[in-house]
């Protein structure tokens, strides 16, 4: 299970960085989103991979190794909401920039297929 998660995080990170280096704005936004997903998976994995474990510690059973850590789950949930809002803002700026310059290239040159 850990190898699959590590492979998923590495693949998302590699694809995200590759897309960040592309000259088109939409590919940059998709790369930033993939990199955000990779960081979210990494933070989520730091809370230990436990199946069927309750998220809150019971005061009567104070053995923390039997429970999942709720802090990474809360951080990932917050990061997902912030990432969604940031992506929406980037897309609005992309559409405004494309409307003003009639291109979506970073360097400003107009290239039409």
Defining traits:
113 residues, 64% helix, 0% strand, elongated
Helix content: 55-70%
Secondary structure tally: strands: 0
Largest sheet report: none
Q: Radius of gyration, Cα only, in angstroms?
A: 19 Å
Q: Write down the overall mean pLDDT.
A: 80
Shape: elongated
Helix/strand-derived category reads mainly alpha
- Low-pLDDT segments, ≥5 res: none
Figure out the total of helices: 3
Q: What percentage of amino acids are in beta strands? A: under 5%
CA-CA gap between termini: 44 Å
Secondary-structure element string:
HHH
Question: How would you characterize this protein structure?
Answer:
By secondary structure, the protein is an all-alpha fold. The protein is built from three helices and no strands. It has helices at 2-20, 25-45, 70-101. The chain is elongated, with a radius of gyration of 19 Å. The protein starts with a helix and ends in a 12-residue tail after the last helix. The model has no long low-confidence stretch (mean pLDDT 80).
